[in-house]
Amino acid sequence: MVARAARATDLVDLDGAVADCFACPRLVAWREEVARTRRAAFRDQTYWGRPVPGFGVADARIGILGLAPAAHGGNRTGRIFTGDRSGDVLFAALHRAGLANQPTSVAADDGLALRDTRIFAAVRCAPPDNKPTPAERDTCAPWLRREVALIRPTLRVVVALGAFAWAAWWPTLREVYGVRPPSPRPAFGHGAHWSGTAAPALLGCYHVSQQNTFTGRLTPGMLDDVFARAKQLAGVD
After folding, report:
1. Which helix (H) or strand (E) holds 168?
2. Domains of the chain, with CATH numbers?
3. Do the beta carbons of residue 152 and residue 138 sit within 8 Å?
4. Are 113 and 100 a contacting pair, CB within 8 Å?
5. What is the rounded distance in angstroms from the CA atom of residue 207 to the CA atom of residue 190?
6. Is the pLDDT of residue 197 over 90?
7. What is the mean pLDDT of the chain?
């Protein structure tokens, strides 16, 4: 898989390779089981049931790094953060920020387009209980690193959604940019900010999970503040 990721010459090539990955037996079994049994509300739909590629423009200045696709979201629709409550919150915020052409993301063919932004996940398959193992994270890392390498010429800031994504960024920083992560590494928190001299800035944001948005731990205003800061750091009007 490392070699397949390295051979990808552009994002279209990479996305195709990602969607054809079978490297983690537990994740393959789970994503296919979910696609076979389906949730009652989506019983008449054909699930994607494969790894979910990144989504957005090739000249992105802002990267949004998530944890993994949702079992009945991206694993169903084939597009990251599409078809679930987390995506509802995220894309509404991106639309308010002028980074998405519409506030909803319900299907891969719904006309959604991003501006100056690309979204990707640390792990590309839906994991049981939304909890990939460290070994699965590390196995999937070459996809993330190659994606970042392909958008490196324009990428100026990465928004890490949650502590898992925040932790996944540091090995990527080392492998793609040749920058040694700071020691001790900055702690994750909402609004946390790290900047280096030869790499994109990193912003922390609470994950757009229902656990955070339904309880008020993450509010629309808090998301708006993060994306306003990301636009400022990236030089996006």
Report:
1. helix 163-177
2. 2-234 (3.40.470.10)
3. no
4. yes
5. 9
6. no
7. 97
